[in-house]
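Please review the protein record below. Tell me whether the encoded fold seems credible here:
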Amino acid sequence: MRAGVFGGTFDPIHLGHLAAARAIRTALKLDKVIFVPAGQPWMKAGMPVSPVKDRVEMVRLAVARHKAFELCTIEADRTGPSYAVDTMDTLRRQLGRGSDLFFLLGSDALTDIAKWREPQRLIRLCQLVAYARPGCQLPKKEALELAVPGVSQRVTFVQVPQVDIRATDIRRRVAEGRSIQRLVPRAVERYILEHGLYGTASQRTA
């Protein structure tokens, strides 16, 4: 089993996330991509984040029609902050040591890998798969190696479609009453509007 693990706040999940997951699955011949919404994202402590039940449900709706995508609520069900190393350790035990695990992350997150919890143990548990977000460049392996020795041998760079969609922009558009069509899956758009997320009144899309 070759499984990709795509963690994130997903507030909300959008078409850029899905495009990156599809491209990486194809490039690395992954059997599946597991989406893991963070319960309490530690890097966003003190920042407003939508309730985890809403973020989990949006991911569930977004991946429902993709046979190779699945939702995992391991972090949403856990108390306390969500750390990638704990998640990968648990998934390693669940999927078995014969499975190959690939942790998907954007270039900005990879740049900060030294700040993550137990980065050395993380790279022993899985292969990191980094992709460039729009407007960002992939970091140099040399710089990464200085920050976390050994990481340069445990990271793969994959090109993905440069879909310039950002969750912050989606939240702003909703709050301003503007359309988010073609930014998120239609089912996610309906959920956002019907549940009054991001400062909008509950309403049904046309």
Observations:
- The helical segments are 15-28, 52-63, 84-95, 107-111, 119-125, 141-147, 167-175, 186-194.
- Residues 201-206 have pLDDT under 50 and may be disordered.
- Residues 94 and 194 are 36 Å apart (CA to CA).
- The chain is about 35% helix and 15% strand.
